[in-house]
Design brief:
This protein is α+β, with helices and mostly antiparallel strands. The chain is 29% helix and 23% strand.
Amino acid sequence: MSAQTAPSVPAELRPLGDFLAQIPSVLWVNGKLESDDEGAGWWWVKFQIDISHRCAWHVVQQFAHVANQLSIKKRLPIVFYPTSPPVYLNGGPKKHLCWVIETTNPPFDPAELIRQATPYFPEDITDPDQWLAVDAGGDSKDDPDP
């Protein structure tokens, strides 16, 4: 079953939402674009990963690397982090743990994230086996920025 980008996702975020929706283990994608007093566009996308999917934690690991630790000299102006409503009100991570990618610099185009992330992700992002290739002893692609 393929994930869907919520119809409420703004057009500027739809390419990123559709990109995320292709990844195995992603269940749904939502997002929001907000402007500050100067008109700068802050954005975020939120998505749920099926934590019982065989490549779920590989997906989390790749996003954590690309978003948070790609390079000390080449940091992307985004953060990737988990979020959850209060556990005591809603329940455990299977249904309520979500992940957020959020801009830390409003001019950063969400399409640029796709362009920057692509070299670090499997060649076919829809193929679960390619996400698992890291456990087979190597990256699915050579690291373009060692």
